[in-house]
Amino acid sequence: MVSSMRKERWSKDIEEDLILLIKDWLRQTGKTQSELCHSLNLPSARMPTLIEYLKKDFCSGGIPKIVNRLCEVEELWKNNAGGDMKKGLELNSSGQLDLLDEICEDLSKINFNN
Prior knowledge:
- The chain is an all-alpha fold.
- The chain is about 65% helix and about 0% strand.
- It has one domain.
- The radius of gyration is 15 Å and the shape is globular.
């Protein structure tokens, strides 16, 4: 039963892990924080704006919704990568699974019983 599942609550630990994950993911994809915010149609490229946006996703769907959102952005970048050869690094389809694995690994380190 869905209603009996424990709903995760946003915490400073989740926020800090998400920031680290995003920075690492951006490095791996050869993209910038500004490009990510632009792809999400955010009014600012600042990290607090990005985190506030992803926090809304988290509150409505947890980590899976954030993962889905980032995978959508990655797919958008992949589809638009034709003219962007200077970035060089393009993830294959396993990149989404790697991202999900990394998120799960990071979450396993968080003590949600605080």
